[in-house]
Specification:
The structure is a single chain. Helices cover 34% and strands 23% of the residues. With 140 residues, the chain is an alpha+beta fold. The chain folds into 2 domains: 46 residues, SH3 type barrels (Roll); 71 residues, Arc Repressor Mutant, subunit A, CATH 1.10.10. Strand 2 and strand 3 form a beta hairpin. The radius of gyration is 16 Å and the shape is globular.
Length: 140
């Protein structure tokens, strides 16, 4: 599910990939459901490609969202993204205790919480890895 959810540099919020044109993508804002073009010169990033640095490597964003979803019992995050940096780091340490404190900045944690809250508001709560599940089924 996170593969079709995009973050576009310079534009607030998250977007769902709707269609692909010749030199652009058609995306729909998760906030106001308005469709708009996203051009190749804009920095587009699928949430499926995002990972969080840990002491033992990287953890995909889908796994971090699943941990957050479990901690919050399917509700929005109980912390305000505008909380002080130390509070954000302490909260994130409860979810992912081995996150790399040197490479994961408070701004990253704020963005992660904002994205999570937006996805929960939109009813997107399936944070499983569909790609791995289909690859395993094909292998069998």
């Amino acid at each position: 599910m996170l593969k079709e959810i995009l973050s576009i540099s310079g534009k607030p919020g998250l977007f769902r990939l709707i269609s692909q044109g010749k030199n652009m993508l058609i995306v729909e804002s998760l906030v106001d459901k308005k469709r708009q073009p996203a051009y190749s010169h804009e920095k587009l990033m699928s949430l499926a490609d995002v990972a969080i640095y840990t002491d033992s490597g990287e953890k995909p964003l889908s796994e971090v969202f699943a941990l957050l979803f479990e901690k919050e019992n399917g509700q929005k995050a109980s912390i305000d993204p505008k909380s002080p940096n130390d509070t954000l780091r302490a909260y994130f340490a409860e979810i992912l205790p081995d996150f790399d404190r040197d490479r994961v900045y408070p701004t990253d944690i704020k963005k992660l919480i904002l994205w999570y809250n937006l996805l929960v508001d939109c009813g997107i709560t399936d944070f499983s890895k569909e790609e791995e599940n289909t690859a395993e089924a094909t292998a069998e």
